[in-house]
Fold each of these.
Amino acid sequence: MALGPKTAVYIVRRLAQAVPVVIGIVVLNFLLLQLAPGDAATVLAGEAGGAPPEYVAQLRERFGLDRPTHVQLLLYLKNVLSLDLGYSFRNSMPVSTLILGRLGPTLLLMGATLLASVLCGVLLGLLAATAVNTWRDRVISVAAVIAYATPLFWIGLMLILLFSIKLEWLPTTGMEDVVAFNEGWDRVLDIARHLVLPTVTLSLFYMALYTRMMRAAMLDQRGMDYVVTARSKGLSERLITYRHVLRNAVLPVVTMAGVQVGSLLGGSVVVESVFAWPGLGQLAFQSLFARDFNLLLGIFFLSACLVVLVNLAVDLVYLALDPRINVD
Amino acid sequence: MPQSFWRRFIRNRPAAVGLAFLVFVVVVSLGAPLFFAGDPFGIVGKPFLPPFGAYLFGTDSLGRDIAAGIAHGGRTSLMVGLVATIVAVSVGTLLGAFAGFYRGWIDDVLMRFTEFFQTIPTFLFAIVLVAIMSPSRASIVLAIAVISWPPIARLVRGQFMATREREFVQAAICLGMTDAAIIFRQILPNVLSPIIVAGSLMVATAILIEAALAFLGLGDPNAMSWGFMIGAGRSFLRDAWWLCAIPGIAILLTVLSINLVGEGVNDALNPRLRTL
Amino acid sequence: MSTPPAAANGRGGPPAATNGVDEPALLAVQGLNVALPAWADRERAVSDLSIQLLPNQIVCVVGESGSGKSVLARAIMGLLPAPHVHVTGGRVLFDGEDLLQATPGRMRAVRGARIAMIFQEPMTALNPLMTIGWQIEEMVEIHLVLGARERRARILALLEEVRLADPERILRAYPHEISGGQRQRAMIAMALILEPAILIADEPTTALDVTTQAQILALIKELQRKHQTGVLFITHDFGVVAEIADHVAVMRHGVLVEIGTAAQVLNAPQHEYTRSLIAAVPALAPRAKRVTDAAPVVLEVRGMTKTFASGAGWFSRARRSVPAVKAVELALRRGHTLGLVGESGSGKSTLARCIIRLIEPDAGSVRLAGIDLSALTRRELRPHRKHIQMVFQDPFGSLNPRMTVVQLIAQGPITHGVAVPEALARARELLQLVRLDPAAADRFPHEFSGGQRQRIGIARALALKPLLLVADEPVSALDVSVQAQVLQLLADIRDRLELTMLFITHDLRVAAQVCDEIAVMRQGEIVETGPTAAVFADPQHPYTRELLAAVPGRNWVPPRF
């Protein structure tokens, strides 16, 4: 597939189609959060140690929480459409500043996980399928079944126990050693060392899933007619696997990876909590308990946009892999 | 058919082992009040007793019996996993069936919904739902069901769309059958096996979600749960690893056995796949 | 190698020269045995089979499904699905070498370069993700050391030879971007590019439309003569055999029952089984007119139109409209059988489904015995549905696998309010009418053969005593001998019950045997209609003439015994 004007039109159309979905997510979450007991004013007042009702009312008025719900919603939507995500009264900072500060770490973790899980999954699936019913296949398959059943947060803790506490190979938590004031390559290396365990933790489940899918897809494709054709042409089994079967078998894995971006972002909430990774998931969690709904809505909005973009990127990869998909 | 199903299922060794372990988990969980009478939150001895001493799995930071917690926590996990799955599968099957059979606007709405749930980070959404409804078994079940039904609906929709084009369904329309009869008596029995398989795997996923919620402190405060135990023990990871390790292994083995059973059911329902 | 025989010898047996005993065989299969896995219904897929292929000769291996003819082809190529199906004895001599003893490496050198193969379904036989050019080039690249330019010149020359227009475009195209006929031409080009001594063709025209089939058969024959290739041609269709074979081998249950020149086997078969197969081939001669025009009109279709809106791709929302049926008019009198003939995509099935309202038409009306069905809503239509019943094509898909035979047949009357015991009793009677053992009533569909399932489908349709029976390709999934029985059954029942029938088929032989009138469809329109005999004798529309000319073996009159 060439990156021609057709592809550009396709990208624009896909983005346009995503707008109602993203707005839907914002509206639904807005309405849901209205149902939550308490708001930022009560939480602030509570922290101030049982402030008088007049103070709470005053806070509500300042935050605009005293107006009817639909007015608040319309106001909020209007702001979102002009990319103004509002103000976090809890943190005394604009929501966008807060979120953008956390976007980098989240993107780093997500990107590393997506890459690691797809690459390792495809490789392991290939290794298993090319040695079907041998010890290599069995070891990979059993490992995948076990990894598929492992709770993320628990394996994260166990990895910390083993690699950080017992072996002291890798740092326990955080994204970098702040007090070391690393710069340049030292800093990159430091962040990479911090990235290993969270990425392994978050990848494990998806890697297991893609391994199993890849193995199944390889075996499936092996039975296709075009493989018989390739054999009748005199190709060796090795060439058949790498030239013909592999590419066909990767397609379902790529589709699956696209579908799961949203679930991956959700999973990162847990992993960020285990590793104190300063990403969006942790921020979301904190904002929920502080009833900082502006911030929480902003995070939902941004993560929805993120999923849309990553989905689109995955679909473009798919488009490049499968000529049967037509962009017009 | 059912007899040969059982024979095929039991011949599959991993599935048989999984089923045996699952039966064990169910017995221990249901029998928890008998085996471990009293409140699992109650203090029984000194804190941080290591496992395989006075207490099978030792005690936690407050001196609570970990084995009792595991048994009682199993009830929570299994109950939440099962009920959430039943709700999600029922809703998903019904909506998927209508969308796949009628297409049109109901299908469009359903597809927007599944798109919605693919775009939103589902686990974060579940957290918000539980927080809003305040954590309880009911709110956890509901939250898990809400985020779990769309994949089932998608699956059932696809099955219905494919089966609807099969000639025996066309024949049923020609015979003048009502839509309800066609949906529930002609098509549904023919697409039941993938639904059963997806449902059994969903129990495992639901247990994992429940554990993660409880780990983050969003569990039912009145019910012991495996996720809660890990969350409570994580501060003592350095000195008392078993506080976290044991409940985690319980989750792992339970989920693993459910997955093995689910796959065994799949293989036994589709014997053709195994003749590869 | 001897000089190629005169091309004038189109049909009716090869010249004696190519069959001379003195000429060495190109390929000799001797005493081949192929074992089936333990769970199969018989022990051997091929037993003790010997067959010879001479240079510049087309040998057709003909047989019904399960005869072992495809297994034979794959055994020669060393492509059996090991370990379940494997050779247990015999020799496959090619150039004096036993291919069954060849090393895997040696077999890879033979495959493609010396013995090439083409398949039934070129769409699935080609890798969907690679261009046609790449896939042909791969064949050259793995066997020969040639520069890129030389390879390309060779490929382009061959694409011209298989008459692919615009070869440059075809080279760049992916399999899904070209038509079925073009794909099969590309497959042939790929198979012949290394000038193999032998071409094995496994049902290469079965998935194609009849006019495309005629072209591909002519092409295979022409290239075979030109390159003096030996061709082993696997087919189930005696028409195709008559069209292309020099020699014919008839197989049944893995055993070779008869072998001889095309003229011998087609016109004077010796073996009982060959005779029964040939007797089952419908003659292309239309049946005598059976009905009068005085009968009242049962079905009247006016201005039937259906356009499909189709999404162009998975990700795309752009709608393209595909007109499937365009303002079709039809009238059918009581007791008549109207044949709706046409190639795939002609709209014949869509038209039938619009009449029966399995598809909602965009415009047009259907009157059945005076009632305007098109004015009714889906709900209002339900009680009237019993008047039109349908027999479907796929004997495996048309019966709900979870219901017993008697339930399947009785469900229609029960839906329309007949008491259950009465409906079940009547269902058992119907089983006898369609000549099935009433003892089979409580079994499930998977326990029956394809022909028996079609009988169950017919009984289900008849259970409602319909005014009109729509049969959509009811025999095209069946083997020829079973096909003859089902057609006979349909004809008998029609005569006995004075049924009116709309019979959809792509097979003009079947249409000639069954239909009183035919309507020829093409691209959603009826281009010609009239009494079968008249249309066959003097087709008016050029497309009808083209269809008739394309019927394989049209000049061969199957002998009757």
Note: Residues 480 and 489 of chain C are 14 Å apart (CA to CA).
Amino acid sequence: MSASQPIAIQAPLASASGPPQRQERWWTGARGNRRALVGLALVVLVVILALLAPIIGRYDPNYGDFSQTLAGPSLDHPFGTDSFGRDVFARVLFGYRISIMVAVGSVLAAVAIGLPLGLLAGYFGTVLDNLIMRPLDLLMAFPPILLAVTLIAVFGTGTDIEILALGLIYVPIMARILRGSVITVRGEEFVEAARAIGANPRRIMLRHVLPNSLGPLVVQASISMGIAILIEAGLSFIGLGVQPPDPSLGSMLAEGRDFMREAPWVVTFPGLAIMVVVLGFNLVGDGLRDVLDRASR
Amino acid sequence: MIAAYITRRILLTIPAMFAMSLIVFFIIRLIPGDPVFVILGLRSTPENVETLRRELRLDDPIAVQYLHWLGNVVRGDLGVDYRTHEPIRDQLLSRLPVTLEMAFLAMLLSAVMGIPLGILAAVRRRGLADQGSTALGLVGISIPDFWLGVMLILLMALVLGWLPSSGYVPLRESVWGNLSHLLLPALTLALNFAAVLTRTTRAAVLDVLNRPFVRTARAKGLRERAVVLGHVLRNAAIPIVTVMGLQLGYALGGAIIIEQVFSLPGIGRLTLNAVLERNYPVVQGAVLLVTFLFMVINILTDSLYAVIDPRIRHSGR
């Protein structure tokens, strides 16, 4: 089942066929889904680690102890130290801050722009649909990473540019997914009923159609967070993202490469760290999609 | 019929190509400062500046500048790299085979791993292969490909010493040398791709397995093998082909990162170096070429739909 599959959650107005069901059903239903829960636990863990980085990390991520260069993992330095004698564990935690910031920033920006566009295009259709969707289709004609690199070439490096570039990649995806589910929900009986009792279009769109169309968008948002973290790390790895000495999971990998034969931990842990958080977001997305699919049957 | 279908697909791509050319044209114009100095950088001697100013037609209205530039691009003239005085087109064309070979090899490896595993997972649903492939798939899409590349170098090149860690040998010089240098980068991409392809194949095959014609095929006594390979796979092919097409396109764009990991002299490395050196005409040319190829791959993928499914080629959609 793809993320754009229609979901037909029973809305309050369509209660003729049984007791009224709560709109948040897909959300509360996630409690029963182990995969989503494990994913959520991983994500929450990473967010806590990132927030508490200065306390848990114990070391200043940019402080280099030159008597301790390329030291292996120990109690003092759980992930070892890098070629400047900096604590890899502390750098991973601070790197998470940047990863999470870029992921949340870009996905939020894309949803903020893509949601209204997709809602309007899906609900009103015809002319407005073409007016909104055709330009967005053009954006999708570019290979995503190349689009990001082009923007960075023009505007320079920095986390703000990364957020902008990733957001731009995601806007058409978010708009398209919401548009798809809005088109399905628009034709449901409870929407017709709302129209029949004379509710104005704005109210129908925001109170009835939107809440029932959000499911696939939430799934996509979760998966997109993971992809954003991967792309951010990739861009930092090739030197187009976060600039040294600031710790980013991608640039740590790039710096550690020169010493990976003597000190494999410098490249191993940042990569594992990326994998854990991306896996978390993917599990959440996957789990939610399963719950949605089941609810639609 | 197929020709008409493909023609229509090509025509539909023209607006996108037009938009792409506008965006690429404005890359240089968007950068603050005089385009001439943006392009020449430290090489701006008075003669250089004067020549380039005339060449870019900077005294004309911007629309004329654009049309002039577009005319050159359509004729295959992407300008000269002011750092090496080499035509940009030649630079791109000499790097392109490396990237294409890597991308196709990755697609091939990914298909060999992902499609059979996906079929097996669907046929033996909830079996060991299914659970294993689901878990592998989730991990596969969560691994950063460049990190996987670094780890493969560490294992295969530095620890085991089986394959070279970086560099490139042209196919003409040595077939084995060429393959051994491209195997790790292609495998890195392929492991990531196979994760997605397995999931797609599994979902597509499961979807088809429940259709009535599959029951008919079984009822008339066909062996399961013949049912799956002859009837199911053909009907499940469209999502699989779609994903493979997307991945090929992704490999071209993602080459920027992977080629850097393995020091491969392809289009991606050329683009990255141009971005880092602020060599904007080369950035323009590379973006133009890769995006063009990306669109061509999309057209080819769409055309394959018509080959696979006669309903598409006759419905005129």
Note: The radius of gyration of chain A is 22 Å.
